[in-house]
Design a protein that fits this description.
CATH topology of the largest domain: Aldehyde Dehydrogenase, Chain A, domain 1
Shape: globular
Largest sheet: 7 strands, mixed
Structural class: alpha/beta
Number of helices: 15
Radius of gyration: 25 Å
Strand content: 15-25%
Distance between the termini: 60 Å
CATH class of the largest domain: Alpha Beta
Helix content: 40-55%
Strand order of the largest sheet: 10-13-14-9-8-15-16
């Protein structure tokens, strides 16, 4: 594919002004939503083929999240797109000041393989709502999902407006050689650095949705059975291949044994005595990541789970004991169904350990003490998170989802998706009736005195 021609055609289409029309944007969102609803079974089948996701999990964590956000954006788009009047300074009287949102133009969306539908269509909603044209590049690691995304684009849009490009690293490299008005990337920290370097060549603004080691802190006061159930769900969802999954557990030593017993019981309840045979237990995306996760656990002590099946690329949900912050499994994001367990004696000790690490995309704390909740939330920097739950903070259109520092920059969902893909012009409209002379040379001492008073 000639990417230079593709982006040139999108610039011509954008210059036509068609995407600036709010009715046009709403029509495209409606078209997209209708296609998703008609093809939800095929989308779920693609997610099962790529990641072994159960139909319920595929719909709940990908299709349903997208449709909820689409409805939210569609309903409020007209209001968001209006000029926003702001206060003018008294010294500029009479005048009117306002901010006008406008689309960037031609944007590039690079999406990952772990939630291939949600993490592709989610940012696309923002690009469409804000009035942009978009080139979308899903991951080659999830070929079935990428294929249906390409089909979706062909069915709903013309390529000079929205185009999905399939392929691997060569296509990624070629796409990043083109000039865009905005880049939205979701993926690993290593690739994020490459994307940011490519964007810097043209001073292209961008959003980076990365990852990192998201901690889960459980204090002595926590509701242990409920905490175990919610931690097990968030950690082993999608075989742990979730950027906001609890990456490691920091639990008070007095409740460790109770929590781990409950965790093991939850895994058996969720996936049965033979998790590898459960249709609800997803698989690793490919051999490379299967081997990588098993390599991180080599020589470690399993509290439960850890059995694997290379033929099906499945790893049974597991927890590791006798782990320290220097252990190999603590040196990188796990992105698999393995939960290292560390203990602490007091909360400050736990917070101090987390504080010196790179800022995570998510943080979770389980406690029934308000003072402990406040201490953790006020002491640590992270993208977002939950108190007494995991993962669910990203499933809302009312808050932005994004990282900070090493875990990314920028956010989206709901109004923040519209904001991310919009530039806000700041405009002041001055009256022709009054023109104060004091701002013009030659300056007089009396003018300076008046200026200081103003």
């Amino acid at each position: 594919m000639d990417f230079e021609t593709l982006t040139a055609n999108q610039r011509i289409f954008f210059a036509s002004g068609k995407t600036r029309n709010i009715a046009f944007r709403k029509e495209q969102l409606d078209k997209l939503g209708d296609w998703i609803k008609r093809n939800d079974e095929r989308i779920m089948a693609a997610l099962t083929a790529d990641l072994g996701k159960a139909r319920f999990e595929g719909y709940a964590t990908e299709i349903g999240v997208v449709l909820d956000d689409l409805r939210y954006i569609r309903h409020r788009l007209g209001h968001w797109a209006r000029d926003k009047t702001v206060v003018s300074p008294l010294k500029q009287f009479p005048s009117r000041s306002f901010k006008r949102p406008e689309p960037y133009g031609c944007v590039l969306i690079l999406s990952p393989w772990n939630y291939p539908f949600m993490l592709t269509v989610g940012p696309l909603l923002g690009a469409i709502a804000a009035g942009n044209c978009a080139v979308v590049k899903p991951s080659a690691y999830s070929p079935n999902s990428s294929a249906i995304l390409a089909e979706m684009a062909r069915a709903c849009f013309s390529p000079e407006y929205i185009a999905v490009v399939e392929g691997g690293r060569e296509e990624n490299r070629a796409l990043l050689e083109q000039r865009y008005d905005y880049i939205f990337f979701t993926g690993s920290i290593a690739v994020g650095k490459t994307v940011m370097a490519a964007a810097a060549k043209n001073l292209t603004p961008l959003t980076l949705e990365l990852g990192g080691k998201s901690p889960c802190i459980v204090d002595e006061s926590a509701n242990i059975p409920l905490a175990a159930r919610r931690i097990a769900w968030g950690k082993y969802l999608n075989a742990g291949q979730t950027c906001v999954a609890p990456d490691y557990l920091l639990v008070h030593k007095n409740v460790k044994d109770r929590l781990l017993k409950e965790l093991a019981a939850c895994v058996e309840t969720f996936y049965g005595k033979s998790p590898l045979d459960s249709p609800d237990c997803p698989k690793m995306i490919n051999q490379k990541h299967f081997d990588r996760v098993l390599g991180l656990t080599r020589g470690e002590h399993f509290l439960f789970g850890g059995v694997s099946d290379p033929a099906r690329l499945k790893i049974a949900p597991a927890a590791l004991d006798n782990i320290s912050f220097d252990s190999p499994v603590m040196q990188e994001e796990i992105f698999g169904p393995v939960l290292p367990v560390l203990t602490f004696e007091n909360l400050r000790e736990a917070v101090d350990k987390v504080a010196i690490l790179p800022r995570p995309l998510a943080l979770y704390v389980f406690t029934t003490k308000r003072e402990n909740e406040r201490f953790v939330l006020n002491s640590l920097r992270f993208g977002g998170g939950c108190v007494n739950d995991t993962v669910v903070h990203l499933a809302t259109s009312h808050m932005p989802f994004g990282g900070v520092g090493e875990s990314g920059m920028g956010g989206y969902h709901g109004k923040d998706s519209f904001r991310t893909f919009s530039h806000y012009k700041s405009i002041m409209k001055k009256s022709n009736l009054i023109d104060l002379p004091l701002r013009y040379p030659p300056y007089k001492e009396i003018y300076l005195k008046l200026l200081k008073r103003m």
